[in-house]
Amino acid sequence: MRVLIVEDDRKLARLIVHMLEKERYVVDVAHDGDTGLELALHTPYDLAVIDWMLPGRDGLTLCRAIRAARQPIAILLLTARGQIEDRVHGLDSGADDYLTKPFAFEELLARLRALSRRFTTADTIGHELRAGDLVLDLRAHSARRGSQVLDLTATEWRLLEYFVRHAGQLLSRQQLLDAVWSYDADVQPSAVEVYVSYLRRKLHIPHQPDPISTVRGSGYRLTVHDV
After folding, report:
1. Do 181 and 90 fall within a single domain?
2. Domain assignment of residue 227, yes or no
3. Looking at residue 124, what is its pLDDT?
């Protein structure tokens, strides 16, 4: 999972980064709202932790800008404001969750895990996730390519889901490793290549282009084909 931290308290930001990297998240940091927006608009993040009070563009304005750009990022808003009306204001501005300072790092981690489970994108229609002729039913945990039902293992499902959520984007092996195998600190990088190969075989349809392409030396890309 890739996370954006937008926090002007540099000491707190360093502590959050250290904690998340120990959990095998990939983390980028911005210390003001304008830099945070620039990163959010040009980098494929899964989650963002945004402080309310920021130099320049504040956290609420940043949330609204991310939502206006239809960026598929789950947002956790951090603030010292704990009143109900403040929480409502934050959520109405586009945040998915709200955590009041001071907080326990264990709770922050738990909330990020919960957000990652609920994560949806602009390509989600109801309970379905679509990319071209690929359709994932998030409730039934089933997948198909066109009319072909795919028999996927749990790991293959997570890998395909990540590809579909980031369709058209170049994904490095490390990104895939962090996103799909974040629970397993002992997994080897070669697992990515092995499971991409498994997935390609299951996605194969005669006389149809393979949806997953290899970009030599860089990673993989899921190319969306018309239905």
Report:
1. no
2. no
3. 46
